[in-house]
Inverse folding.
């Protein structure tokens, strides 16, 4: 780590470069405020940029996200630190926050990289690609994904063998292994917490076999398989590359389940599963798709019609609670479930199972602020102190929360929430002390 | 240490040792890549056939073959009569 801290100041610090953080930053910057976005990943765009389509409109997610992230990246009022994290934030006084930021090296000079991918071609290493949820490999020198912003290479130093092949072929000499971790001391007048959510890791429910049974996937893995920049040429089982023809969804995996510590509904899993089921019917016209659910929560605008549309397309809905999944020798999966309507225990066989994983709070929120406490709600999301009158307000004056940092919500609600957080931040900035 | 543009990996070599896991991983991939490429010289092969040749878990074979497809060494061939499994061939 370089020993000196770099001092600089902004009007607003936005933590998280997903759709809520990006939208908040744009609103602030369009009103003349100087914004710094801190993003932990190599690209902004959050989870949305990795989705196939959005529900219920079935618009292409990348087509909505790409122009947005490009507007954020090119805005003169917005500075973005990717591959960075907030070490701590202290509120010194009104309009005076001090944040310690750690910026990890990318080992590529961002401004000079053309994204030509020659380094990627030359790199001999293959390791699981986290942006394809480990379904396929990537190199140690890599562009995170084709629509990443910035579309700049990075070196995965943990897996790099230091062979030098990438540097040899780089036409702009922008690979730089002398880069070091940098520490910044940032002054800001207001903070927007847009730290998003974590997906439930189904390894915590061993009876579903995720991890051991290779044809049990998470919904995010299926999302990647359905995206235009998918890992395979078509939908395939990761266990043996079979084109599946009888797929099952298990809703509420890691939601509404006190045994795994998350009693609340994730609000998006029913609808994204119905969306994926519809997309699968298009991608695999001969396939059967069954959704096992406890209740279908189709509460939003157009959601009930979307649900009916899936039924009309032939998606089978079974009100059933999955007890256990077992694997057959051919990789098929037996679902043992309680048929809630018939009050009977039944079994059914599928060749691929998708676990519709839920939304969990980002644990980083608990440790962001030192001194004054950023209070969390009983489910560990950022507490909204006045959820009706001022939904973005938090326990710290001058700190506002946007998007899923406050709880599960879909994309339109995240964008609305970002609008609210940025408006409140602007009011706070322009209020006379 | 003086660093020369285009050769800064040498600087890093002085600073940190490449982990054994990273070395093993490269060795493993090179072996798999060589075996797959040789096996596909003559014929298109399925994942099942490649699994027998590589003698490793089928899901790992899928992972590596798909990675070879991604980086243009291998391409997807024809699908079997049941429309279930593709075969794979060299991307010549
Ligand atoms: S130096 Fe590292 S990143 Fe570059 S080509 Fe070699 S293994 Fe890949
Ligand atoms: S680091 Fe160099 S070789 Fe790699 S994408 Fe950037 S410009 Fe191309």
């Amino acid at each position: 780590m370089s020993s000196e801290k770099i001092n600089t100041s902004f009007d607003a610090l936005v933590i998280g470069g997903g759709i809520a953080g990006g939208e908040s930053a744009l609103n602030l910057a369009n009103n003349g405020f100087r914004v710094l976005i801190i993003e932990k990943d190599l690209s902004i765009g959050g989870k949305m940029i990795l989705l196939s389509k959005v529900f219920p409109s079935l618009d292409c997610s990348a087509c909505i996200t790409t122009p947005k992230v490009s507007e954020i990246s090119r805005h003169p009022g917005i500075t973005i630190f990717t591959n960075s994290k907030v070490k701590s934030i202290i509120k010194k006084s009104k309009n005076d926050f001090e944040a310690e930021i750690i910026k990890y090296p990318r080992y590529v000079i961002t401004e000079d990289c053309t994204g030509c991918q020659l380094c990627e071609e030359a790199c001999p290493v293959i390791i699981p690609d986290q942006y394809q949820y480990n379904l396929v490999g990537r190199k140690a020198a890599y562009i995170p994904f084709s629509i990443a912003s910035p579309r700049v290479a990075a070196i995965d130093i943990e897996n790099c063998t230091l062979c030098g092949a990438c540097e040899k072929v780089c036409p702009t000499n922008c690979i730089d292994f002398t880069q070091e971790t940098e520490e910044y001391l940032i002054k800001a007048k207001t903070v927007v917490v847009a730290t998003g959510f974590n997906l439930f890791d189904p390894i915590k429910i061993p009876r579903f076999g995720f991890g051991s049974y290779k044809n049990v996937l998470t919904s995010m893995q299926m999302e990647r398989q359905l995206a235009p920049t998918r890992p395979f040429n078509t939908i395939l089982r990761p266990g043996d590359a079979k084109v599946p023809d009888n797929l099952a969804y298990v809703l509420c995996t890691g939601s509404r389940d006190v045994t795994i510590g998350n009693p609340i509904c994730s609000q998006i899993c029913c609808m994204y599963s119905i969306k994926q089921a519809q997309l699968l019917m298009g991608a695999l016209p001969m396939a059967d798709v069954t959704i096992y659910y406890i209740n279908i929560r189709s509460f939003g605008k157009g959601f009930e019609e979307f649900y009916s549309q899936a039924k009309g397309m032939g998606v089978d809905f079974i009100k059933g609670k999955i007890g256990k999944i077992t694997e057959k020798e051919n990789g098929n999966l037996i679902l043992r479930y309680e048929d809630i309507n018939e009050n009977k225990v039944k079994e059914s066989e599928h060749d691929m199972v998708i676990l519709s994983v839920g939304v969990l709070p980002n644990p980083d929120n608990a440790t962001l602020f030192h001194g004054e406490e950023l209070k969390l709600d009983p489910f560990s999301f950022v507490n909204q102190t006045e959820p009706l009158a001022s939904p973005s307000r938090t326990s710290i004056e001058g700190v506002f929360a946007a998007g899923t940092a406050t709880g599960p919500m879909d994309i339109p609600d995240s964008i609305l929430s970002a609008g609210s957080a940025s408006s409140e931040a602007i009011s706070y900035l322009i209020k006379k002390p | 240490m003086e660093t020369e543009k285009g050769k800064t990996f040498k600087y890093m070599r002085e600073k940190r040792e490449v982990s054994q896991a990273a070395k093993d991983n490269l060795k493993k991939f090179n072996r798999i890549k060589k075996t797959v490429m040789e096996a596909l010289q003559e014929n298109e092969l399925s994942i099942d056939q490649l699994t027998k040749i590589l003698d490793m878990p089928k899901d790992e074979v899928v992972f590596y073959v798909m990675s070879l497809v991604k980086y243009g060494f291998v391409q997807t061939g024809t699908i079997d009569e049941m429309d279930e499994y593709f075969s794979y061939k060299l991307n010549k």
